[in-house]
Design the sequence.
């Protein structure tokens, strides 16, 4: 089996890499900036398999409420996504706006509105200009193409500085098949889904249960393991569409692995484009008794503003790491404080809970990636979580966003 | 009963407001800046009652480990506190440093080292210059005075810009008695104790059990209800010393109320001096089914960097409030998203989960205090938590602290 992955530095075809999909990205006029703001992804089959995972936030956008119903039967024909407004906390009228959007797409494509997933991203609490959006659906339908993946990826950007796409091609025993995807998200990245909007497509022949299992496994290992600023969105949606157009039927494990590979590429791209970040920080917790414990410890570090500000200042401040590790309760993660080892970019600055190599040996200035390795010495489980530093640019961007 | 409280704008005598206490603050030479860095508080009795609460962090400083043992029998004769180094993660030698400090104080004062509480604050992971500290103990002992409270408050400052002291005098049925206190802390303010170091004194006649109960009740309502940056310290210590010098024996409830009053004043001063903050934000959650639920909701809001950055930008971004409220699980706090009301500085910007009054009506620019009122409409419990905004100055201070 040969797997070829796009270099993420180039823009991969994304959702139109697999056979059986068309996509488009157009300017409906929802954004004051005049940038593209409406994307459409259509599954031309022969299968119309769909699965999705959503934010675990209890305050959710109307598109999430709608789309949960859409994917319940495992059938999805299209996904329509807009930037320029999240349609969250907009009252009953906001839900009608989502409903009308799905109806309009259904009409334009000749499919049931109940098989159209809707995703919206942008500011919370303001109605969308619905007539503008509905006119945009006509534009997007006319622009659909089998090479439209990159345009769709551009149209879902908000504060993102680059579009995010990825794909893999598998030349396997059962034939050649592909997985592609796109994502947006540059803030409010936190667990229980870390991206705001993501569409993954495949031309493999899979049923709804296999698609659902693969997507859940993939998000658990990827989007749920990035935590840029600890803030969970109301709108996070990851959709997987399968067209079956390749005719190839992979084994479920191999399929899940490839969905995970594409999701991992997209998740990494999200971290790399997080609002105002200067460093991408991989926190690896080893020697944990359980996976959940390792994740809780990694999460505690990733949520420490003091640690994140220190990394921004190129300061391998392991004291702040240990202080945040110590906040994890004993029943969640077993460890003895006097056994903890911490390495930053390969330099063990803390050994057995105390100072070891001089922190001046740690180079944080010459590259964007930072690798923190924490050994709990309590077991054999390992987890890596990605986060970002806390910078002036983050504060600027998030204090000026809506005003 | 008459209660007179110092105006917090003036410097109250703090720990020397009650009878039976001497204190001092001197420059031992622990700080490169040459500022005062060693404080001593001595209880001259006739009682030597002591109680304390400490950080719940599992990674703790040696002074915390030591002082837990000291207060176990309810007897404390003195508290020695240094800034210029936290003595955390410094290995077995670090514990010996704390031990030697207590021995030196015991020798200087003629009391048992086992009745001397030690508190240290500053950077984690570096040994204290112990000989310098021990010489400082002689200086501090010589400087002890019944008016030394303010000097002691100055000597425990790290990144604090002002010393924090408070006191109340109670002219009650059982005689006149006083409670005084001092605190330091301008970062790493989070629950499970929000301050780094605090000493509260009283000349009331109370036993160890009463003192302990009063202190726990007070911290639960005050220091545990401020959360500046979500980062829990390794060194948080709040000590209560009772001298009995007034001869007045208050009822336990009245006593706890006055300890709470002093703790509340100190906690409010900590928030007002939090690192780099431009706004002090009171988050009041009403209509909660339980106190714990209300607190969890308030805490979720106070931990949202997006919300805190918005307040810095004078933006009453209620969408970010609702997004953070939605992260609290149902079993922790009951509420329906479509019933939530949010007011900011008296303007109801969100009603029934949707936009209400225009956000432009909210004035955030003309004063430092911000009042956020969230009604869950799920019960009758109310909790107020204080936090700060996320500012450029916070990032600057915490990215440049140790380098």
Sequence:
């Amino acid at each position: 089996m040969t797997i070829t992955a796009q270099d993420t530095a180039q823009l991969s075809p994304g959702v139109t890499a697999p056979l059986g999909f068309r996509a488009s990205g157009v300017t409906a006029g929802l954004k004051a900036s005049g940038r593209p703001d409406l994307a459409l992804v259509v599954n031309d089959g022969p299968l119309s398999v769909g699965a999705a995972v959503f934010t675990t936030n209890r305050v959710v956008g109307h598109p999430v409420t709608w789309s949960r119903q859409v994917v319940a039967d495992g059938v999805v024909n299209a996904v329509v996504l807009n930037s320029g407004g999240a349609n969250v906390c907009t009252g009953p009228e906001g839900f009608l706006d989502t409903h009308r959007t799905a109806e309009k797409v259904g009409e334009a494509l000749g499919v049931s509105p109940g098989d159209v997933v809707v995703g919206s991203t942008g500011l919370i609490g303001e109605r969308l200009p619905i007539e503008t959006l509905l006119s945009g659906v006509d534009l997007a339908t006319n622009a659909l193409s089998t090479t439209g993946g990159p345009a769709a990826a551009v149209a879902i950007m908000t504060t993102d500085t680059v579009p995010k796409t990825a794909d893999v091609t598998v030349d396997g025993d059962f034939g050649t098949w592909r997985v592609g995807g796109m994502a947006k998200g540059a803030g409010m990245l936190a667990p229980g889904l870390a991206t705001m909007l993501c569409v993954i497509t495949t031309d493999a022949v899979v049923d709804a249960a296999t698609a659902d299992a693969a997507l859940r496994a993939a998000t658990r290992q990827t989007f749920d393991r990035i935590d840029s600023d600890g803030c969970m969105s109301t709108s996070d949606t990851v959709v997987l569409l399968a067209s079956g157009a390749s005719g190839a039927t992979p084994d479920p494990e191999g399929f899940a692995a490839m969905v995970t590979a594409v999701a991992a590429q997209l998740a990494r791209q999200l971290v790399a484009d997080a609002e105002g970040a200067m460093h991408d920080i991989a926190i690896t917790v080893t020697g944990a008794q359980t996976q959940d414990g390792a994740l809780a410890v990694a999460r505690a570090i990733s949520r420490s503003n003091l640690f994140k500000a220190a990394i921004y200042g190129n300061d391998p401040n392991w004291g702040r790491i240990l202080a945040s590790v110590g906040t994890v309760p004993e029943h969640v993660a077993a460890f003895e404080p006097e056994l903890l080892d911490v390495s930053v970019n390969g330099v063990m600055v803390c050994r057995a809970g105390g100072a070891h190599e001089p922190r001046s040996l740690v180079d944080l200035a010459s590259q964007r990636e930072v690798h923190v390795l924490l050994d709990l010495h309590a077991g054999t489980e390992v987890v890596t979580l990605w986060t970002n530093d806390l910078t002036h640019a983050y504060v600027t961007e998030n204090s000026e966003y809506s005003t």
Observations:
- Residues 280-399 of chain A form a domain with the Ubiquitin-like (UB roll) fold (CATH 3.10.20.340).
- The two ends of chain A are 52 Å apart (CA to CA).
